[in-house]
Each structure stands twice: as C-alpha cells, then as structure tokens.
Specification:
The protein is an alpha/beta fold. It folds into two domains: about 160 residues, Alpha/beta knot; about 70 residues, Helicase, Ruva Protein, domain 3, CATH 1.10.8.590. Helix 9 runs parallel beside helix 11. The structure holds S-adenosyl-L-homocysteine (SAH).
Length: about 260
C-alpha cells in the first residue's frame, strides 16, 4: 500500500535536502522518491544527509518533467508555502494524510509534490495537482525547509496509515524501556502506606487524632489518582521513615556530621 505513494521533489537545488527528504520518508515507511530535474544528484551530500536511507536515493527515479513524475497517478497533492492567487481545493496536512492513505489503500497511485527551495512550485505545476496542501505555519514566516515539509506530510500519511492498520501510535511499555519492577503497588501495600502516613502526620503534629477532619480520605483520594508503583511506594515509605526519625530527634541516616 505504502509503495503506491510517491514523493516528488521538483528541481531541488540542494542535494542535502534530497538526502534529508529520503531520510524523512524512510522514517515514515515510504520508499518511492521521484526527482524532477534535480540540480545536483547523485551527490555525496545527499547520501550523507540520508544517513541510512541510501536505498531510497539509490532507487530514486530521476525524470526531466513533472508530467513524467506524475504518470499513472490518480491523486496528486501539491504543497505550497503560501496562498496562491487562483483558489484551488485545499487540504490541511491531516486531511492530506487521510486522503492519500484512503486512495492508496484502494490501489491508486498517489503523489505528494514539493517545490524548489527558492521559488516553490510554479502556477503551472500547481495546476496539475488535484489539491493544494499548506502546512499552517506562522504567516509571518511560513516557509519550511523542504525536507521538514516532507517530514510533516509523510508523518501525517503514517499516522493515517497506522490508524487503518489498527496499529498503536504510542510505544509499548517495553519499547519505552520501562523496568519490569515498575509494577503498580497493590491494595495491601497502599493500606500499609496510608497507615504509615497517618502515624507520621500524627508524629509531626500535622494530624490531630482527636480532630482528624477529612485529612486521610483526602490524601487517599490524592494518592489513589497517581497509580503509584512499587518503586515509588518505597520512596514514599522511606521519606516517612526519615520524617519520623527527624521528628524524634534521631540522627540523619546519611548527614552524620549534622548531629
Ligand atoms: N519561497 C518558496 C518557498 C519554497 S519552500 C515559496 O514561497 O513558495 C520549498 C518547498 O517546501 C515548497 O515548495 C513546498 O513544497 C514545501 N513547503 C515549505 N513550506 C511549506 C508550507 N508551509 N506548507 C506546505 N509546503 C511547504
């Protein structure tokens, strides 16, 4: 499906931008790059900036006209850094991701077209596109770096594609590298903690056992919202133990010279 989507870069001046665009594409799972009349390609700078996405550069199709680049395409989106004079059907990047994926899933060839660093796409080139896409940047400084614009659009394609696959868009706990011992504290551990907390609050004179008001239920509600882990529970228990020791005038565990 993703192979039905091509990224077309028109008349790019800087080979570094071609490399960076290839990297952006590969990060988002896209592989088909078409270069219309690039000023300097192939180039070492492009490969350097691709950093690992050389395969995208190696398989890039180099053509001399936009017409050739768009051969067979049923949906063509043209990106533009500014509003043009002729009103044209517009999509925002999120809508673009959705339509690109919708059409590509149906088997259609789809193209995302990006313009020159200094002049963007010509009116003639933009008129070959079914829709125009503008990344809603600050109007005072609206033009993104070419590869950055490729990244935004391909990211939206990926998000839309992941949604159609029913795949998660968040890393799983293991991918984040969460420790296995980061399990949540159990109800009985919480009860022991609340007991310890209550005794400590009495020790330091914060809680009057004769007039407890609603302090403990409120604290239970507060901690209950936090999904405290076993590790965090140990930290809290440690703090309470040291608070009690300090309240009793016992020496600090580690600041020995303080006594
Ligand atoms: N001076 C040019 C800027 C081109 S930036 C102009 O005014 O058109 C190079 C390319 O990056 C653009 O042709 C477009 O493909 C893409 N791009 C940059 N900023 C963009 C934005 N805000 N929205 C959509 N595409 C953008």
């Amino acid at each position: 499906m993703l192979q039905n989507i091509r990224v077309v870069l028109v008349n790019t001046s800087h080979p570094g931008n071609i490399g960076a665009a290839a990297r952006a594409m590969k990060n988002m799972g896209l592989m088909r790059l078409v270069l219309v009349d690039p000023v300097d390609f192939p180039s070492e700078e492009a490969s350097a900036r691709a950093s690992g996405a050389d395969d995208i550069l190696a398989s890039a199709l180099v053509v001399s006209s936009l017409e050739e680049a768009l051969a067979g395409c049923e949906l063509v989106l043209g990106t533009s850094a500014r509003e043009r004079h002729i009103p044209w059907p517009l999509l925002d990047p999120r809508e673009s991701g959705a339509s690109v994926v919708e059409r590509a899933v149906q088997g259609a060839q789809v193209a995302l077209v990006f313009g020159r660093e200094y002049a963007g796409l010509t009116n003639d080139e933009l008129q070959r596109c079914h829709f125009h896409v503008h990344i809603p940047s600050d109007p005072q400084f609206s033009s993104l770096n070419l590869a950055a614009a490729v990244q935004v659009l391909t990211y939206e394609v990926r998000m839309a594609w992941l949604a159609t696959q029913g795949q998660p868009t968040k890393m799983t706990r293991q991918e984040v590298g969460e420790e296995p011992d980061e399990q949540v504290a159990t109800a009985d551990e919480l009860e022991m903690f609340y007991g310890h907390l209550e005794r400590t609050l009495v020790d330091i004179g914060f809680l009057d056992p004769e007039r407890p008001r609603h302090l403990m239920p409120r604290l239970r509600r507060l901690y209950g919202r936090s999904a405290i882990s076993k590790l965090e529970m140990n930290i809290l228990r440690g703090i309470l133990t040291e608070t009690q020791a300090t309240a009793r005038g016992l020496p600090h565990k580690w600041r020995k010279d303080d006594v």
